[in-house]
Known about the structure:
- By secondary structure, this protein is of the alpha/beta class.
- The protein has helices spanning about 10-25, 60-65, 80-85, 105-110, 120-125, 175-190, 200, 220-225, 240-245, 260-270, 280, 295-305, 310-330, 330-345, 350-360; strands at about 1-5, 30-35, 45-50, 70-75, 90-95, 110-115, 135, 155, 195, 210-215, 230-235, 250.
- The strands form two sheets. It has a seven-stranded parallel beta sheet with strand order 3-2-1-4-5-6-7, with helices on both faces.
- Helix 1 (about 10-25) packs across helix 15 (about 350-360) and helix 9 (about 240-245) crosses helix 14.
Amino acid sequence: MNVLFDPNPFCFGSASTMRAIIDALPDARARVLAGGPVIDLCSDLVVEQHDVRDVEALRKRPDLLAWADVYVAISNNTNVDVVAAAGVPLVFVDVLFWMKRQRTHAMDVASVYVIENYPGVDARLADLPVDGAIRVGPILARSKRASDGRAPVHVSIGGAASPDLVPGRNTQYPTRVVALADRLAQREGWPFLEVAMGSAARASVVPRSRAGAVTLDGATYRRRLTQADALLTSPGLNGPLEAFVAEVPVVFLPPQNLTQVFHLRAYEEAGLTPAGLGLADLLPGFHVDARAPEAVGTALVLDALARLSDRHWESVLEHVMARLAAVRTEPFEQTRRQRAWVDSLGIDGASEVADQIRRLAS
């Protein structure tokens, strides 16, 4: 069974989703169209480097489409028409359906349209019904917390780069988080903290005396996560959910992009973190609509981040230290709430997607 994967190249979460599906398909031969930050997570896979911005790139590679028994696109609409025209069965995995703004061609032409469950999906399905869609639980690489080799905290901000987020140019978020990690290490008496991020973001960061940036492969990332007493992370999707499943307490940083503004709100509403780190908390009057055009919403978030002063980041540090202290005193209560919440979304979506791929390939 030959499976060609096409993850959104600017979202680390799509690469993590892909990994979970590949793990659930030990009988498959996988190849990956990879580019952008996600290529950092694909070094051990068979990779076809691919420019997602070139809508003709895949059309120029009929050999790839002829090889594939099934094509799996993960939140990436670029190649949907080419795949449909070639007659290759298409599985479209939509990890952000809860933020969908409009209908897409994938909803009509995919052999299987998979919606990853999340708060807000019901409302979106009411507005954008998708005939035959399959709704699954979180599609995650599932790990267990290690019983030895404890580290005080593992810090991660995901890929932290995209066409809209260019570290060192229109966002200083990676640099700000490394500076915060440096202060945190000094205050806690830790020798050094590494902040995991994509290679493009890492290149924009100047190391501090007690903190620096690092790019990790998936296996190393999960090992460090499961060996940590807590995860300190931007409020993305897969990173926090993987920690929830591994029963590692999560402490959040402010959001760095449009989707993370609303991820953080969902975690607050679920009682998984207290308010205080949202951009509206730090900058009263800030507002962005979840279904604003991507360029508009991203510009508003980047403007808000640029207005965060040293004083704002000092308040973030105090919030983080207070949350880490709370985690130390009630770690089991924190992990119980986290695990219950992620389990409420459904169990093992990766296996359900794998079953659909096998069905199409047979």
